[in-house]
Design brief:
This protein is mainly alpha-helical. Helix content is about 55%, strand content about 0%. The chain starts with 13 loop residues before the first helix and ends in an 8-residue tail after the last helix.
């Protein structure tokens, strides 16, 4: 699974940006994405990749 972490705005700040802890709301989003990925493991291991991809690429209701 690939999770984006944004960009700090200047190339010299990328390393510390990527390696530092995410801000509160971003950390919650990362944990939610990991949970959603884990929820799809059954589909992934049963060769239902299209089902898993569709579910992972559809935002849950109430999420912006």
């Amino acid at each position: 699974m690939r999770i984006g972490v944004g960009h700090p705005g200047h190339a010299s700040k990328v390393l510390s940006w990527v390696l530092s802890r995410a801000a509160g709301p971003d950390e919650i989003s990362i944990h939610n994405a990991i949970e959603r990925g884990l929820d799809e493991m059954n589909n992934i291991t049963n060769d239902q990749l299209q089902v898993a991809m569709t579910r992972l690429h559809t935002k849950p209701s109430g999420e912006r």
